[in-house]
Hints:
Largest sheet: 3 strands, antiparallel
CATH architecture of the largest domain: Beta Complex
Distance between the termini: 59 Å
Protein name: Tubulin--tyrosine ligase-like protein 12 SET-like domain-containing protein
Structural class: alpha+beta
Pfam families: SET_TTL (PF25556)
Number of domains: 3
Number of helices: 6
Organism: Rotaria socialis
Helix content: 10-25%
Strand order of the largest sheet: 3-9-8
Amino acid sequence: MKNAIFDSGSYFQLCPVDDDDEELEKPYNPERRFYVSTLENVVLDPENDENAIFLIDHAWTYRIGDARNDLKSIPNLYERMASLMNVNSDTKDDGIELILQRMWKFNQTYTLASTQFNPNAGLEARQEPYWYVMDELGSSIRYSSSNANVRCVSFFFEPSQTMFTLFYPIVRIEQSYTEIFRNYIHDNSNPLDRNIKLLPWQRVYSRKSILRSLTIENCPEIFTT
């Protein structure tokens, strides 16, 4: 870890998405240009191989209020995000609007505990939320609720003060060219939370009715007279 070795290229490859893939859970993957698969003769065994864990870099880390300005001012960030999110636009301003919409399908988040000095209250802890988009490899891992074979978790490496994503197999993968899938909400079995967290993948005109249905079901007192 201390050497930040990104050796996933020895195990995985990016492949162009086949739009005719009938087994793909399409609502969750429409903007992805590539998918991730293992290479030939690669075997990943989480039970017996302690090296079956890989680093994913973060292509963009930001605070929500800074997102638009980042895309305008950070060199090459707009071009990289447009390519990663499959955004084609006539103007940069229009492209930024599309990225700001689509980024919720790529966003990950973590919260860091920081401290700030308050002369009146002494030293107090404050939670700092950050959002990030994984690099091209991490962002190309597609969603599946039933075929997930890896898990991705954010990891703060204190010696270098750097946040990475770790990903590792959760089942044995032994067939060559196996596609890599993850479940975006693997750790949440609450139906309400699951439906809310999957809202970015619903069509815009459907979100209002979905939210209303969820509210009626879970907070009926709001609609009682």
